[in-house]
Design goal:
The protein is an alpha/beta fold. It folds into two domains: about 10-105 and about 325-370, Rossmann fold (3-Layer(aba) Sandwich), CATH 3.40.50.720; about 110-315, Rossmann fold (3-Layer(aba) Sandwich), CATH 3.40.50.720. The chain is built from 13 helices and twelve strands. It has helices spanning about 15-25, 40-50, 65-70, 90-95, 110-125, 125-135, 165-175, 190-205, 220-225, 250-255, 275-285, 325-330, 340-350; strands at about 10, 30, 55, 75-80, 100, 155-160, 180-185, 215, 230, 265, 290, 315. The protein has a seven-stranded parallel β-sheet, with helices on both faces. A five-stranded parallel β-sheet has the order 2-1-3-4-5, with helices on both faces. Strand 6, helix 7 (about 165-175) and strand 7 (about 180-185) form a beta-alpha-beta unit. Helix 1 packs parallel to helix 13 and helix 5 crosses helix 7. The longest helix has 16 residues, at about 110-125. Bound molecules: glyoxylic acid. Glyoxylic acid (GLV) binds next to loops.
Length: about 375
């Protein structure tokens, strides 16, 4: 089916030529805000008011009642190119009965592998090592000077949040002979955890790994107190939204539970970590280091305490890049790429697939608004 109905779409960002072309091949009139920065909210409202049928958004856009009100007669779908959707007010979307979609699954492995690499980078001091070479400060090979890193093999990691990405991180860590402590305030996948334990036992029995390793769910205190690495994989949930918020889950108190030799890895959402408290912990060396891909405010402001040169050797910072692999971001295949999945979500809704029932459409988040 093509664009017999004259569907119009506004995208607040480029999503790459292949997926944009797929929408245009469907005959849709696609207008793209070239960016690369996000458009002002007033422009999004203006476009929605002008009667677009579909709105493609990124996690930088605040999508709330103002936007849904502007589109209440015409807007049929908000398609977000991200798995996280804390920028979209779900209650407002439901009030206006406008479905919104996300791109779960296709970025799971890319995000988990990046989290793993970040962990290696901070623990094995890869950035410091490269700087030494580049800046001609490498005096001589030496058994332990000018510094050493910490291994991950054989160590214990706490996985905070065992949704898709947390489980993928578990899989990668188990391949590095790590012991794994899982904590999730909402959801426990015992089947997966038991499967990983079976794989660990088999690897040990067959001599593939030298030491026995273990995986189990524990309470948060035990996870934080025991782990050599703490990796965060929870969605951002504000106190106004739930009884179990994740906002500032890592704070002065929880940081104090961590070992002085432990590292924090965050690829989830910035506000899950109280950055001021983290910078203080890094400065006072009450933890060993942190690798962060997400921040309370993005891009990271110049006056962020995380940019303090005094903690630069133990603080690795990235530009919200964990899902930033070519295929993961741009593939037009909805089973592989975020862009492909975003385009497919728009097509599903505008072309009335699944009998036109958003509750049955795979990428719709707020299915509850359409339950019969
Ligand atoms: C990235 O952070 C995403 O939610 O996809």
């Amino acid at each position: 089916m093509t664009n017999e109905k004259g569907f119009r779409i506004f995208a607040t960002s480029r999503i790459g030529a292949p997926a944009e072309n797929r929408l245009r091949e469907h005959g849709y009139d696609l207008e793209v805000f070239e960016g690369p920065e996000a458009p002002p909210k007033s422009l999004i409202i203006e476009k929605v008011k002008s009667g677009v049928d579909g709105l493609i958004t990124t996690l930088r856009d605040r999508i709330d009642a103002e936007i849904f009100e502007a589109g209440k007669e015409t807007l049929k779908v908000v398609a977000q190119i991200a798995v996280g959707f804390d920028n979209i007010n779900r209650a407002d979307a439901n009030k206006y009965r406008i479905p919104f979609t996300h791109t779960a699954d296709v970025l799971t492995e890319a995000t988990a592998e990046f989290a793993f690499f970040m962990m290696g980078m901070v623990a094995r001091k890869m950035y410091e090592s490269e700087r030494l070479v580049r800046e001609q400060r490498w005096p001589s090979w030496h058994p332990f000077l000018p510094f050493l890193g910490d291994e991950v093999t054989g160590k214990t990691i706490a996985i905070i949040g065992t949704g898709r990405i947390g489980l993928a991180m578990i899989k990668k860590c188990s391949g590095f002979d790590m012991n794994i402590l899982c904590y999730d305030p909402a959801y426990q996948n015992n089947d997966y955890v038991n499967g990983i334990q079976e794989v660990m036992d088999l690897r040990y029995a067959r001599g593939i790994q030298k030491e026995k390793t273990a995986i189990k769910y524990v309470e948060v205190e035990e996870a934080l107190r025991t782990a050599d690495y703490v990796s965060i994989h929870v969605p951002l949930l504000l106190p106004s939204e739930t009884e179990k918020p994740t906002y500032h889950f890592i704070n002065e108190k929880t940081l104090k539970l961590m070992k002085p030799t432990a590292y924090l890895i965050n690829t989830s959402r910035g506000p899950v970590v109280d950055e001021k408290a983290l910078a203080k912990a890094l400065k006072e060396k009450t933890i060993a280091g942190a690798a962060l891909d997400v921040f309370e405010k993005e891009p990271l402001p110049a006056d962020s305490p995380l940019l303090d040169p005094e903690i630069a050797d133990r603080t690795r910072l990235f530009h919200h890049f964990a899902s930033g692999g070519q295929i993961t971001r741009l593939s037009v295949d909805p089973e592989k790429g975020m862009a492909g999945r975003t385009a497919q979500a728009v097509i599903d809704i505008l072309e009335g697939r699944y009998d036109g029932d958003p509750a049955r459409m795979p990428y719709v988040v707020n299915k509850e608004a359409f339950a019969k």
